[in-house]
Amino acid sequence: MMTGITSGTGSASCRFAHYFVVCGLDTKTGLEPEEQAGESFEQSPIRRSFKSKVLAHYPESTERRPFNRDAVNMLCMPRGLSFRTQTDDRVPFFHSFTVSQDDGTRFYGFVQTYYEEVTSAQITMAMQTLHQMHRVEHHSSSSSTSSSASSPSTSSMDSLVNSLDESDADSLAERPLSACPCCATGFFQSAQDTLYASKALCLLTPLPFLQASRHFLTQLHQAVAASDAPPLPLESYIHNILYEVPVPPPGRSLRFHGVQGPIMCQQPGQEELPLGDYPLGEAFSLLGVENLVRLLTSVLLESQVLLLSNDYQRLMTVAESISTLLFPFQWWHIYLPVLPASLHHLLDAPVPFIIGIQRRDAKLFCLNPIFQANLCFVDIDNHHVDLPEDLPLFPDQLELIQELNEVLLRFGLQTHAGATITNKPDPAAPPCLSSLVLEDLMEDRRNGNLGREQLAVLERLQALARRCGGTAGGKTLGRAFEEEEEELKEAKMNVQLREVFAGRFATLFGRYEEFVIHSAPDLESWLSNREGVSNFDKGSFLSTQPTQHLHFLSRFLETAMFSSFVDSKVLSRWADRDPIQRVFDRRLEKDRLYDTFEDDPGNRRYRKCAVLHESAQAVERRLLKADHTAIHPHLLDMRIGQGRHHQGNTQTSTGETCMNTTHGLDPRKPVTSPETTSGLDNDLREKYSPGRRSLRQSKLLDPSPSAVTQTKRGFVDGLLRECRLKTRRMLMERMGKERAESSQVEAGITGLQENTLIHSICVLLERTWAHGLKMKQVRNTHKHTETHSKTGHNLFGTREYKCKMCLSGIYALSMETVGKVEGQALLLFLPLRFVQTMNESLSEVGRARAWVYLALEKKLLSQHLKLLLTNQDLLRQLYKPHAFLLCEEEREQFLFHLLSLNTVDYFCFTRTFTSISIPYRVVIMPMKKLSIAMAMSNPWVCVSGELGDSGIRQIPKNTQEIYFHCQNLGRLSTLQLGQENSGLLAKCLVDCVIVHNEITGHTYRFPCGRWLGKGVGDGSLERVLIGQLVSPGGEEDSGRWAGTPPEQGSPPQIGLTGLSSVQVQEEIREAVNNLVKHFHKAEPERGNLTALLCGEVGLVRSLEQLLLHGFKSSRLFQRSVFIWDFVEKAVVSMETADQMGDLQGSTELCDSMCHYVNAINATSRNIGKEGKFQLWVCLGVRDQLLSLWLPLLAESHLAARLYEETALFRDRAAVHSLSRLLHTLREFPIALETALVKGVDL
């Protein structure tokens, strides 16, 4: 076509297209087999793939977008060159691709592939020779030979093609044709057959102008294939689109001319959604609404997404549809909707990706995608989506699906299970109109130049053409109008579907700016400390969201996608806002003016998108009437790219020439794509980009061995870095929470967020263990079983699951090494056996993660994995040399980071698997310093936790401990210890009670320090004790415990207080303040309320200190003082005064206090005086009466008789202040544990 290759001048960024490329067969280099295609040499040569080359590209290069020859060639022809004969199907086909730049921007490629007759005698002879060699070698021997032995190497083929003379070829051609099916199919004889080779015409654009590029390439190909020459040389049209057709200004449309007709393109306005030209309706038709929403959910949570189809364009359509629906978020990981065969190693990438492969490539690479836990496998042709394990629902998913269905129905698409049915006609070739009359009519209609009468005539012509099938230039007039209307309908449907999703994100993140943390004083300090600083208050944000949305949102907030969104907001303080974020923020500002949501964000109702009609109208206006017209193609007096050209000039519909600056587009400034970040140079942009990639996108597309090695090395470094960041984040968040719990300040993370972080660790482990795993080991059940039959049994059956190989390996290793490291092997085996016997309906992936949760809670995760990785023979058997687990230095660092998690306590297994049966061991510890033997009559215990209680468990006679199974109690909080009333001899001074969880290894200590028995202490036969976690477990190799600060336990028995009045008041204020902060936290974040009420620094103890301050007592025999005695006497005094009519104050208040005290005394439980006082305080707080009772007690005549004048209880101001302080608790719903109020009917 064109031979001159010259460079263009001027800015390429404002041009419609950057490059025009031709790829195909290079007759100079001959036939080189495409080894990466992995095809068997048993195939006929004409059915094999050969290397393609870039034959020409224009211009040579541009300043901001250097031409990547290898990448473009691979993506234009992903499987290389293919050949056909005259008997084969040679229908042209179209596909597109996209390439991500190192700075996060993308450019798009649009490819028209057709078959061109091979005119080179050398190529024809080479194909004939290869076929004859194949036929001879196939029948030369009946013995089995390997594929490599039966085919020449690349170098031998090249030498054969270049050195073979005609006589040799003729002698081979004279051999008889075999009748076998292998040779009869795809047979080629140069004397009888015509050879065709695939050829690709490609247009590279900065924006996804799919329809316009497709029309241009189709018209260009038809001109190439046509027998009649076009009006102008083809070079004129190529020069025109490269140099004279600009990008339409924002909010405007542009008409330019192809070879056979006008072509329209448009760009959304600055307040509209970014350009998205790929047909969303087709994506919904291929997958169905529900499947596409689930796929979008997987992408939002940054799962690995693998697309599979026979059609490259379908892969691109689905991938780009999902990408456009992400607004205002962006995908920052590997994005290759069309994966060339030479880059198949990227399927082994242990990072999130969106990759599309052709179906036959899936068979070639021996993929087993359904066995990867974090992989979303999409079979487009069969309308099937296999979701990742434990994928949450998208917020308001059912309502969203219903709204999407309504939009689709308005455009004639009816949804059914798994797919979408439409009545639209089969897609045909884009319009190629040569009739000048029809062209003028179409243009005048778009430009609005037809009057009312002319429009009516045109409509009648259209109707007549539909009825009669009239033709114009080989195409029916009706068909031309149908295609135009179909494109308009598709564009309107696109924008409405996108608006629905944009509206959902606006609802979910409408107030995100309130939670962005701006802590850095300048840009450099923020960039240098960004990994250690949180830019978003995730806990506070989640506390404002509906409960049913938390599962999705908590995981989404941890993605790089959301992190980059927040980073961009922070950066807007020093640089221009990202264009996408600017559009989103302006929409939020507009929505707030008309916000009709309820004040309670947790009860927000689903609101449908209200701008569907408005957005569709904007698109319709631009497509029906062109705002600008580009310069028409014209004869050239120079080669392409030489001489003077009109850069960025357009003409209005009236024929006037106007520069883009007239409409806000300065040709001196590059037009940035939607992904471009404004205001930062490339170095800073890459420094802040959320990927912060150790891998450069340009390197991913380099198939050279050195680049592939560097890419694989980058994956290893990335895994290690991700492990470091995740473990650091977990430590910082958990330690922050523990400091908050110990000092009773606001915690920085909820339990849900903690589970989310631990889930991310599981995903990281799965990706790490899957990296470099030999696929042949898991290709089928038999091979999988054979692999492990040498080392042990597979723990979870014979189903192949590559990410779970670590569990099978651990089991096998523990069985092999029992004799060598018996203790460690047993330590590994017991948790695995327990997970295996769990009755939960878990998948194998679920069991694998359950084991990780349990190992983490037991603080044995790093130790387990370290033991496994000592078996180098097993690792080399299962993994490829580049696998992460075979990199010794990185592996040790990885284990070290996991070991750091042992410094804090986790309850991920306990809180996740709530219905399993757990064995507990309870031991009663008497006071050691006393020599009196323990004497208890039928003692019993009842253990309570955040998930329930064990019920009463009778302790066997003559023992001090009990072992029992019950449903998981969660984190333990209280314990009831009691005995029967069997006389004065049944008594014991109990030091504490120890409870041990036999599975997780957690040990709880319930301090007591009191007598249990009649006639001693307060005469209690039952105690309610508050527990504290004292042993994190699994710290055998650490030397000493360095876990969390001790929690509150039961308060010790106290006599007359020695605290000053200031100290007593401070304790009360602190106790009340802790309760207030407890209820101001999000519900998943709240701690143990019982500990705040009855613990060592709880409200009960602080009030007891108050009532003991200045209390008079007989000190002759050091008799214990119990506040309950004073309360009982005060009640008796009130009742007596009431009977005599001398009662002062509120009768109802006195009656309520007397009623509660009498009910407590009447309970069948013998909880002693301390227990009764504790119960009285708790009931008073629950029923909002305590703040009224205390002033009533202080005003009684007993207070003056029993308290010193300096006592706080006789200070009216102090009592009034206390009453007001307790009054603040009345607004909170206080729910008491059953262990506290059991047996009291109040």
UniProtKB/TrEMBL annotation:
Q: Could you name the domain of life of the organism this protein comes from?
A: Eukaryota
- UniProt domain PLAT: residue ranges: 918-1026
Please list the residue ranges that the record marks as compositionally biased, kind Low complexity.
Answer: 141-156
Compositionally biased intervals (Polar residues): 648-663
Gene3D superfamilies per UniProt: 1.20.58.900, 3.30.450.200, 3.40.50.11500, PLAT/LH2 domain
Keyword Transmembrane helix assigned? no
Q: Which UniProt keywords apply?
A: Guanine-nucleotide releasing factor, Membrane, Repeat
Occurrences of domain UDENN (ranges): 34-576
Q: InterPro entries annotated for this entry?
A: cDENN_dom, dDENN_dom, DEN5A/B, DENN_C, PLAT/LH2_dom, PLAT/LH2_dom_sf, PLAT_RAB6IP1, Run_dom
Q: Output the Gene Ontology cellular-component terms.
A: membrane
What are the subcellular locations of this protein? Membrane
- Every RUN domain range: 752-914, 1090-1237
Family membership = Belongs to the RAB6IP1 family.
> Which protein, by its recorded name, is this?
DENN domain containing 5B
Task: Give the originating organism.
Answer: Esox lucius (Northern pike)
